[in-house]
Design brief:
Elements: H1 2-33, E1 38-40, H2 42-79, E2 84-86, E3 92-95, E4 101-109, E5 117-125, E6 131-139, H3 145-167, H4 180-191, E7 199-201, H5 204-230
Length: about 230
C-alpha cells in the first residue's frame, strides 16, 4: 500500500514536469511562428537584447572562424594527402599556414548486416593552439575526410547564418532574442500559477492554451494526487 502511494506520488510529479515541458514546446513553437504572440517587460527585454547581442555576436564570429579554418583545410586536402599527419591515439591532423589546425578521430561500430556506424569527432584549433570547439558527425560508414569537413562546414555556416539573422532583429520592436529555456520558465510559472508579469500574453490562442495548462496542472495536482494518497 505504501509503495503504491509513493509510486502514485512519483507518477504525479513526473506527469506535472512532463506537462510543463510539453507546454513550453508549444509556446516556443508559436513564438517562432509569430513573435507578436507574447509581450515582454521593457526592462527585461532591454537586458535580454544586450545579453543576447553579446553572446550571439561572439558565437557567430567563432562559428565563422571555424568555417574559415575548415575551408582552408578542405583546400589543403583537395591539393593532396601529404598535409594529413597521423597522431597518437588514432587521430589525424591538418596543420595550416595560418597556425590553425583540424584534428579528426573516427570510431567505427561494426554492424551486421551492412556497414557500421562511424562517429567522426572533429576538433578545431585556432592560431594560438586553443581548442575552439569540437563537433561530432555520424555516418553509416567511414566517410572520406573532405566529405566530413564539407558536411561540418555546411552545418556551422547554417548556425552562424541563423545567429546573424536573429542579430538583425535587435533593433525591431519584437527582437528574436528568446530561447526555449525562456518559455520553459514561462510554462513553469504559468502551471505553478506564480506569474511574475515579465512575460505577457498578446493573443487569444495563447490565452486559451494558458487556461488549458492551468486546468491540466490543477487536475494533476488535485485529482491524481488525491487518488494516490487515498490508496486507490
Amino acid at each position: 500500500m505504501i509503495v503504491t502511494r509513493y509510486l502514485g506520488l512519483f507518477g504525479t510529479f513526473l506527469g506535472f514536469i512532463v506537462s510543463i515541458v510539453l507546454f513550453a514546446g508549444v509556446y516556443y513553437f508559436l513564438y517562432r511562428r509569430n513573435r507578436s504572440h507574447f509581450l515582454f517587460n521593457s526592462e527585461v527585454l532591454s537586458a535580454q537584447r544586450e545579453t543576447f547581442g553579446r553572446f550571439a555576436s561572439q558565437k557567430a564570429s567563432d562559428l565563422e572562424s571555424q568555417v574559415s579554418i575548415l575551408q582552408e583545410a578542405l583546400l589543403r586536402l583537395q591539393s593532396g594527402s601529404d598535409y594529413l599527419v597521423s597522431l597518437e591515439g588514432g587521430e589525424e591532423a591538418i596543420f595550416l599556414d595560418s597556425g590553425a589546425q583540424c584534428r579528426l578521430k573516427t570510431v567505427v561500430t561494426s554492424g551486421a548486416p551492412g556497414p557500421g556506424l562511424a562517429s567522426h569527432h572533429v576538433y578545431i584549433f585556432g592560431q594560438e593552439g586553443r581548442l575552439l570547439d569540437s563537433w561530432q558527425i555520424e555516418s553509416r560508414s567511414a566517410s572520406k575526410l573532405p566529405a566530413i569537413f564539407s558536411r561540418l562546414t555546411e552545418r556551422l555556416h547554417r548556425k552562424s547564418s541563423s545567429l546573424r539573422s536573429r542579430l538583425a532583429t535587435l533593433s525591431d520592436d519584437r527582437p528574436d532574442v528568446w530561447s526555449f529555456l525562456d518559455f520553459l520558465y514561462f510554462s513553469t510559472i504559468t502551471q505553478t500559477t506564480v506569474g511574475y508579469g515579465d512575460i505577457l500574453l498578446n493573443s487569444s490562442i495563447i490565452r486559451a492554451i494558458v487556461i488549458l495548462q492551468i486546468v491540466i496542472g490543477y487536475g494533476i495536482l488535485i485529482i491524481v494526487l488525491n487518488l494516490a494518497l487515498s490508496g486507490h
